Amino acid sequence: QPKLGLWYPKDSPFDLEAYTDSDYDGASLDRKSTTGGCQFIRSRLISWQCKKQTVVANSATEA
């Protein structure tokens, strides 16, 4: 298990931003959407992910 962390002084601005998106249009063959996201602290990328879903979606809302 990695033992990583972030430490910020008490008076330091944290400024966390997170974005997510999903794509259902690109799933015309198997109807499995792709979802992704990224997280920033003080405008610096700290994490991102992208994954094709394992379940079939019936609509963009469900995806």
Major pleated sheet: 3 strands, antiparallel
Mean pLDDT score, rounded?
A: 83
Largest sheet, order of strands side by side? 1-2-3
Secondary-structure element order, as H and E? EEE
Helical stretch tally: 0
Ends: how far apart?
32 Å
Question: How would you describe the shape?
Answer: elongated
The total count of strands amounts to: 3
Protein name: Putative ribonuclease H-like domain-containing protein
Organism: Tanacetum cinerariifolium (Dalmatian daisy)
Q: What labels would you give this structure?
A:
63 residues; mainly beta; 3-stranded antiparallel β-sheet; elongated
Could you explain the architecture of this structure?
The chain contains no helices and 3 strands. The chain has a domain at 16-24 and 31-50. Strands 1-2-3 form a 3-stranded antiparallel sheet, with no helix packed on it. Helices cover 0% and strands 40% of the residues. The chain starts with 15 loop residues before the first strand and ends in an 11-residue tail after the last strand. It is an all-beta fold and 63 residues long. This is Putative ribonuclease H-like domain-containing protein. It comes from Tanacetum cinerariifolium (Dalmatian daisy).
Write the layout of secondary structure elements.
Blueprint: E1 16-23, E2 34-41, E3 44-52
Antiparallel strand pairs: 1-2, 2-3
Protein name: Putative ribonuclease H-like domain-containing protein
Organism: Tanacetum cinerariifolium
Compact summary:
This protein has strands at residues 16-23, 34-41, 44-52. The protein is mainly beta and 63 residues long. It has a domain at 16-24 and 31-50.
